[in-house]
Specification:
This protein is α/β, with parallel strands linked by helices. The chain is built from 13 helices and 33 strands. The strands form eight sheets. The protein has an eight-stranded mixed sheet with strand order 19-18-20-21-27-26-25-23, sandwiched between helices. A six-stranded mixed sheet has the order 6-5-4-7-8-31. Strands 10, 12, 13, 14, 16 and 17 form a six-stranded mixed sheet that branches. Helix 1 runs antiparallel to helix 2, helix 2 runs antiparallel to helix 13 and helix 3 packs antiparallel against helix 4.
Length: 647
């Protein structure tokens, strides 16, 4: 039983008033002289006994009436039914174990609140109750029922993870897995922090699930996250200055905030400290660095700890090379301008060799093959094997059209005839947000819209293609494509690097453009692995990493490393409103409660007792008035009879 106003129970002390009146409030007997008491003694005893019994009943009824009215004022409700109406039904507890549940509230983390709530709730269930305890990160596993005791022991072993959980997708998979099983009549309870970024997907409701009880275990508050760490202009070369870019975000976004100190370590050796000034909740810090020796380096960027410790660091593996080795495949006339742009003199960060045809021997130890001429069958096979093994390819059309057509495939692109437009053609648009053309958003790096192209190849790419268009001519024909072949990266350039095809070789933008194209494809084995997130499977050699940090990979002789990061959105602790959650889950009826309310919600709605107590108290008062109106019930003591002198 619970009380809405327990302090009003103090009025129950008024029940002592009728008792005190009964004990100390009766009037003294009057002395009345009477000549003879012999005939009245017996009648006096009978009348006195009946009067005393009636007075005791009146006292008890008055005290009971006061107690009923005092309890009614406190507004009691009956909640101790122990789920009597749920006999035979199973309760499914879904626990959000995503990384955001590690965020600390006023005293504990959201996961600690959820675990304590589960323990307290399971302790109040009947011993025969069957439950299901399911972490949402394991939504692909089958739901298994257990007894209350087994589930209580399992709660203590639960730990929060570092993965991001798609709540709608997890719920859809769990509800689909129920099928015709025994859980069709189950009650569904989810304990979560209501993080908004976890509800990006759409929910596929099941017809047998009509309601979902959500327990809000989270708390509002600010948070700072390291959302990115990357090399500004890869690849990193020995003796050439490099910059590391650290991206920091703050939630909720603020326009004015003190600079955030950023620390960067390379192989556990600290670089000079930096700071990041946030504008609109976002900022970047650039850290200078001079590579001194080739090899794989482990880079870690961190900010000071706050509510969520797991998102305060980002990781990156950087491969430092002594120089890039490029083989230019083509005739002397075709390759001359490329060789001059990449290696104009000695010493140079790029070592260039020319080959009329590609072979396993000419490509051995090379980082990039720059194909400007036609490749025969044997050369094409060698170049494809080179790319599949992790080498970079730059294919210039129309010379490498046959090889590009073979690599693209019929479903990803169509390469046609050479086009000589009547009017000069320029690059109209290019992707300035991603490499290899990201640097050219700054005009100081070179103006990509300045060169005039006098011929190109008919090239079309469907929207479903796995190849990305990085630049287009002003007539929307693709000028640059990027994609993968095996472990290597490939660029298809729809132009010839010769003065006869365009004026590009004579312009200042030519040299930085070729260097960035070569650097882009020479990033090593699957450079996108710098963006690996916790829980993502990256092949049989690594599997799915369970926490942020560095993972050793025995892939090649000497091994390599992989950087695994937390999903940046896990640091966004902004929460879902109950109304938005209801709209997202419709037609499933969603109700949200606090952790303290969960046991009462499972036991059913409390039964209010105030009205019955009011009626009982009034009924007792009516009965007391009825007894009071009877003769001899007014509390007047009978006269005390004594024998007096006779006259």
């Amino acid at each position: 039983m619970s009380f809405a106003s327990p302090w009003l129970l103090l009025t129950a002390l008024g029940a002592a008033v009728p008792v005190l009146i009964h004990l100390y409030g009766q009037r003294r007997a009057r002395r009345v002289p009477f000549p003879s008491l012999m005939l009245l003694r017996r009648a006096e005893r009978e009348r006195s006994s009946l009067s005393r019994l009636r007075q005791i009943w009146l006292m008890l009824l008055r005290a009971l009436a006061i107690l009923c009215l005092a309890l009614a004022l406190a507004q009691p409700s009956l909640t101790g039914l122990h789920m009597a109406g749920m006999a035979g039904s199973t309760v499914v507890f879904l626990l959000d174990d995503s990384a955001s549940m590690q965020a600390r509230g006023p005293a504990r983390t959201a996961f600690d609140v959820a675990r304590r709530t589960l323990t307290d709730t399971l302790g109040q269930l009947p011993a025969t109750q069957t439950v299901v305890l399911q972490p949402l990160s394991a939504a692909d596993q089958s739901l298994k029922t257990a007894s209350r005791e087994v589930a209580t022991a399992a709660v203590e072993a639960l730990r929060p993870g570092f993965r991001a959980v798609d709540m709608p997708a997890a719920l859809s998979r769990l509800w689909d897995a129920v099928g015709d099983g025994e859980l069709r009549e189950a009650r569904w309870v989810m304990l979560t922090d209501l993080q908004a970024s976890g509800w990006r997907g759409e929910l596929r409701p099941a017809p047998w699930v009509s309601s979902l009880l959500v327990v809000d275990c989270g708390a509002d508050g600010p948070n700072v996250t390291v959302t990115g760490l990357d090399l500004v202009e890869p690849p990193a070369l020995v003796g050439r200055p490099a910059q590391l870019r650290v991206t920091v975000r703050a939630w909720p976004p603020t326009q004015h905030r003190a600079p955030v100190p950023v620390s960067v370590t390379i192989n556990d050796k600290a670089l000079p400290p930096a700071s990041c000034r946030l504008a609109g909740g976002r900022g970047e810090a650039l850290v200078e660095w001079l590579p001194r020796a080739p090899g794989l380096l482990r880079v870690k960027a961190s900010v000071a700890g706050d509510r969520l410790e797991a998102d305060n660091s980002a990781y990156l593996v950087v491969e430092v090379r002594d120089r890039l080795r490029v083989t230019v495949v083509g005739t002397e006339a075709q390759s001359r301008w490329v060789r001059l742009a990449l290696s104009p003199g000695l010493p140079a960060p790029v070592q260039v060799q020319r080959a009329d045809a590609a072979s396993a021997a000419t490509l051995a130890g090379q980082d990039v093959a720059f194909v400007v001429g036609a490749a025969g069958n044997s050369s094409a096979a060698a170049l494809r094997a080179f790319a599949e093994g992790g080498g970079g390819l730059v294919l210039c059309l129309p010379g490498a059209a046959t090889l590009a057509r073979d690599i693209l495939g019929a479903s990803d692109g169509r390469i046609g005839a050479i086009v000589t437009p009547a009017a000069p053609t320029r690059i109209g648009t290019f992707d300035s947000f991603r490499p290899p053309l990201q640097a050219f958003a700054n005009a100081a790096a070179g103006d990509l819209r300045e060169p005039v192209f006098r011929r190109y190849v008919e090239l079309s790419v469907p929207t479903t293609s796995r190849w990305r268009v990085s630049a287009r001519y002003d007539n929307q024909v693709p000028a640059l494509l990027s994609g993968h072949v095996g472990e290597g990266r490939v660029l298809v350039a729809n132009f010839e690097p010769t003065p006869g095809a365009s004026d590009l070789p004579s312009l200042p933008v030519f040299v930085p453009l070729l260097h960035r194209l070569v650097g882009f494809v020479a990033r090593g084995h699957r450079p996108e692995e710098a963006r690996v997130l916790v829980g993502e499977a990256r092949g049989s050699d690594v599997g799915a990493a369970e926490r942020p940090g560095f993972v050793n990979r025995p892939v090649v002789a000497g091994g390599s490393a992989l950087a695994v990061n937390l999903d940046p959105l896990e640091g966004d602790l902004r929460r879902f409103a109950a109304a938005d959650l209801q709209r997202r889950c419709a037609p499933v009826k969603v109700s949200v409660c606090n952790p303290d309310e969960l046991p009462g919600r499972l036991q059913g709605a409390p039964v209010p007792l105030a009205t019955p107590l009011w009626l009982l108290g009034l009924g007792v008062l009516v009965l007391e008035l009825f007894l009071l109106r009877r003769p001899g019930a007014k509390g007047v003591t009978s006269p005390r009879l004594e024998m007096g002198p006779q006259r």
